[in-house]
Amino acid sequence: MNDSDHGPGHPARAKRADARRNEKSLLDAAAAVFVSSGVDAPVRDIAARAGVGVGTIYRHFPTRADLIIAVYRHQVEACAEAGPALLETSATPYEALRRWIDLFVDFLVTKHGLAAVLQSDDAGFDALHSYFLDRLVPVCTRLLGAAADSGEIRSDLEAYGLMRGVGNLCIGADHDPRYDARRLAGLLVEGLRRPR
Amino acid sequence: MNDSDHGPGHPARAKRADARRNEKSLLDAAAAVFVSSGVDAPVRDIAARAGVGVGTIYRHFPTRADLIIAVYRHQVEACAEAGPALLETSATPYEALRRWIDLFVDFLVTKHGLAAVLQSDDAGFDALHSYFLDRLVPVCTRLLGAAADSGEIRSDLEAYGLMRGVGNLCIGADHDPRYDARRLAGLLVEGLRRPR
DNA sequence: GGGTAAACGGAACCTTACTCCGATAGTGGC
DNA sequence: GCCACTATCGGAGTAAGGTTCCGTTTACCC
């Protein structure tokens, strides 16, 4: 996991110092540019901001998806870990599900264009798509399962479908005050409640 | 509205015959290409299929949005007109709303990439966005209003938000058998029901 | 048939993604 | 401390798509 350690000279060749420095610069620059120009800002802009050539970006992050994943990894992890926690601290499993979806929505809508690129069928974003799904679907499955077991919701919707749906609802949620993604996601979850 | 009339020689100059022919060719070609390659197929492809130069496309349809609107105008109109009709033929206003949303979803998911481009924040698709909204939001408003008046659903969601939400849910619905947009849209509408 | 302006076509240009390779400069061995 | 070795760098080059521009063609009116 942690490759920044530089223990006593071991056979495994350590990454060169400039490479590590550049990777850090790139992550910082990308994060800044993503905030100001969205996640599909031109690669050149990110390279310029980091003070490196475009070749350096592609060497460290073969696809744009890899860069996006690296930038948001921490937050995705946090979201994933929040699932089980909410299950413990909420009054009911349904309540936990509702709150977890809120977290996910908040994360997505605050990242200009991330939701859009997440659902893009553009090959090359497969890695991004997969990362989110691999990390979050299991968490969602558990929340859905708990809420279904407690009889609060129907049990005929897969976590995958729900995640994609919620992700879609977040598209374009920034830059349109009339569109409230959080609200709609809430209604969608509300729709899961058992009829009656 | 109808500019294909060529009434008795009036001062208004009639459009040249080749221009009218090309416009027709372009609409046919675009429709065909949209089906096989999606609505964001390269402009050059459409021009080639129609047997005209790219300049001719831009002369007839200044933006891609104009072309898309022209191609799907009939179906959008049909959808808009189906609203009031459903209100008359359905058992309850809620039922009419549910069925109308189904129609809208079916329309969107069968047009590769249309939903995505509809929500794109890319300026230049404003016209497309506006056309759909101008034409369909009033219809949706009426359906929502009727269902709210009959007490079947809550009344605190604007038609605009619902339309955007449903449109978003349709993104990427083709080419992913595990994702059922119609189902999710149904759940969203279900979520509108008054609690108890 | 001839004059005129509408309409055509596609070369040219711009922007962005992504690749490739000569130049640069850390690193480990001495 | 110096050198050779090679990982890494930087950005010119290539490709693809969108949009514009203007010399050429052609329908229309008389």
TrEMBL record, chains A, B:
It comes from the Bacteria. Keywords: DNA-binding, Transcription, Transcription regulation. Pfam families: TetR_C_43, TetR_N. Gene3D superfamilies: Tetracycline Repressor, domain 2. This is TetR/AcrR family transcriptional regulator. Residues 42-61 bind DNA. Residues 20-79 form the HTH tetR-type domain. The keyword Iron does not apply.
